[in-house]
Amino acid sequence: MNALPAESSSRKTERFPLWAQIIVGLIVGSFIGAMWPSFGKLLEPIGTAFVKGIKMVIIPLLFAAVTLATYRMGADIKRLGKMGLTAFGWFYLGTGIAMAVGIGLNQLIHPGIGVPIEATGSIPNNLAGSIDWVKFFLDMIPDNVVSVAANHKIIPFLVFCIAFGLSLAAVKERAKPIADILEALLDTMLKMTMGVISFAPFATGAIMAWLFATQGMKMVMALAQLVMAAYLGLLVLTGVFCILLIILGYNPLDTFKKISTGLLLAFATGSSEVTLPSILEALDEMGINYRISAFSIPLGYSFNLDGSAFYQALAVSFLCDVYGVVLDGPTLITILITAVIANKGTANVPSASLVVISLILTTLGLPVEGIAIIAGVDRLIDGVRCVINVFGNVTCTIVLNRLFGKGLSDDADQAESSII
């Protein structure tokens, strides 16, 4: 059974597909922002409206997709547990690889050497200086599911969806009417989302116009090597993901084409959350079991942030060079271990990347104020982080599908037949 609507067939017949329209929007918007900055700044509300429109449908979409996926897999709790453990194992592996690439690129390029020590931005107010692990785990349990949904607190909402899906599976045939309602809700929300996404070319153009109009070129040139290192890291990690896809039997170019809309949205908006509907549809078109994609993708958006991990390692290494700290073996190991642990512990914390960077700086004895040096170009690198995050989550989902997809599909369908 396929829970996702068949939108892909209509897209194939388009002479000018959505991903191409988005690229045109990116180019035109960048040109407008660079040539007419005063006008480019006025276009910000268009991009903001688009992002708000996507976020409007995220919570009901997550509720229907994650609950249904868990319900369908609920007949085999053992396999669900194995898949969850495998996913988190992959999350840590991906985080380690991404951070190693970030540190390696800094060691190769050393973009921080010779950079004048002056703030190019500001540090967010009330930036956390440590991880309260007890609070982190307690925050995963929603005391008011309506409140966490209203505030877009994804992790506790996912916990509720998974618990609700498992409970539906436990009541067996009596849950069938609720499952039918959830399927209708999922189809409806995906239809609504596709309507919002159809405006993506205009929104991405507006966002890029605003971005180019508001980023001072003097500041960009001062940290140009850091920005260059970030984009080079995107190419390196993309190459790593492509190699994995080839090993798994997938054509990287075909995969790129399928997920291109999601990747372009991630780059333009700097938000992984915005890409959820298009990525779910793309994975469905690729033949990925929807039970796995609906479980893996939302979980990955909270815990599998390869792009953020890469940037954290790169930024800290960059600041070490700025402050004249020698990046010897112990220092590099400290950066890697601290970041891998902290990266997962801040999944539900505002300004998570900056929190991790501040923790590592504190561990190394460097001033947290160093964040202000790189804050000015943070938005220029946001898109890179998000593209890597999305591609990493897609790769993880394909791995899980290869390991669990076939057996899960057969077993779940048999269990569903017995319930009905």
What is the string of helix and strand elements?
Answer: HHHHHHHHHHHHHHHHHHHH
Just name the CATH architecture.
Orthogonal Bundle
List segments where confidence is low: pLDDT < 50 over at least 5 consecutive residues: 5-13, 410-420
Category from helices, strands and their pairing:
mainly alpha
Query: What is the overall silhouette?
Result: globular
Tally of DSSP helical segments: 20
What is the CATH top level name? Mainly Alpha
N/C terminus separation? 14 Å
- Radius of gyration, in Å, reads 22 Å
Instruction: Provide the domain count.
Output: 1
- Report strand %: under 5%
User: How many strand segments?
Assistant: 0
Fraction of helical residues: over 70%
Give the structure's gist in a few sentences:
The protein is an all-alpha fold. It has 20 helices and no strands.
Provide an overview of this structure.
The structure is a single chain. This protein is mostly helical and about 425 residues long. The protein has a single domain (about 15-420), classed as Sodium:dicarboxylate symporter (Proton glutamate symport protein), CATH 1.10.3860.10. The protein is built from 20 helices and no strands. The protein has helices at about 10, 20-35, 35-40, 45-75, 75-110, 135-140, 145-150, 155-170, 175-195, 200-215, 215-220, 225-245, 250-270, 275-285, 290-305, 305-320, 330-345, 350-365, 370-375, 380-420. α4 packs across α10 and α13 (about 250-270) packs antiparallel against α14. The longest helix is centred in the last third of the chain and has 42 residues, at about 380-420. It is globular and about 70 Å long. About 45% of the residues are buried. Mean pLDDT is about 80; it is low at about 5-15 and about 410-420.
